[in-house]
Structure of Queuine tRNA-ribosyltransferase:
Amino acid sequence: MYRLIEQDGRAKSAEFKTVHGTIQTPVFMNVGTLAAIKGAVSTIDLNNIGTQVQLSNTYHLHLRPGDQIVKKMGGLHKFMVWDKPILTDSGGFQVFSLAKLRKIQEEGVYFSSHIDGRKIFMGPEESMQIQSNLASTIAMAFDECPPHPAERSYMIDSVERTTRWLIRCIKEMDRLNSLEDTINKKQMLFGINQGGTYADIRIEHAKRISELNLAGYAIGGLAVGESHEEMYYILEETVPYLPLNKPVYLMGVGTPANILEAVDRGVDFFDCVYPSRNGRHGHAYTGFGKLNLMNAKYQLDDRPIEEGCACPACQHYSRAYIRHLLKAKEMLGMRLLVLHNLYFYNHMMEEIREAIRNKRYKEYKKQKLENFMGGED
């Protein structure tokens, strides 16, 4: 399933074989929360800009259109017309972010829908059932996402509960994958490491879940308010205790600089809403930093967003035109910027893989980070 091709320090590049195709790592997963990338970007576009994996959200798809409907439509791949891998997160982060609307118990979480307020229950079994209905390539275990900061005693109890829930997820996925009407009987499960910024709790949890021999492992509960330095420290301390022969996924991260630093600490998988969200607000990622195309200085700028970029926006349109579209609130402006940003992320991951495989990752990272300093923010 996971074949390590090259290591350069702790940075690693591999191939991860799935029922929906082989993923080259390190990889950035484009976030399509509701089975679509916000910004009017289609799965045809995603193919054209080099996307390997698309990520969708269990909680949101359970609420609408409903996972049973997706199953009746043949699963998420058929529903959204995408034949490459899909990872579904467990819904845990969304459930626990609804702090005022939920109640945690050992069996799971009772909470209220953010759409209509109706009462919903989700536990490990329910999360696995929803993700099985969606028929994603990779399902994430249902975990508790503790608040930041959290007291040490709370964190210990939370992590222990997450471990108990993970074991229930494994049992339920094994059961679901054996059923005759399950669409993807080869659905894989990733466990999630938690522990906040307590390195010793993280390490012990990493050791414990590594014994369960899962398809992959994620590091959750970061990028939730701690400093970049704290995040990098936790990665340095924790990743060595996760299996080298399995993918490591840093959830919800991040900026291009975050990705470069995390790759250097052994991370394979990333996802983040930044490229699409920032694109919809006029921000473009480039090799020399981030640009805000809403700025007046681009009003008569006939250059592409980035010289030499092969994305659809840069191949045809000027900064001035895209700025005009954004100012006029034309959807095309947002679409072009989202396409550019996703292409930038996907292309950067290609460069990262090449640098690792050529044993020059440290040099590549240093040069990239220096170049990023030239942006506007």
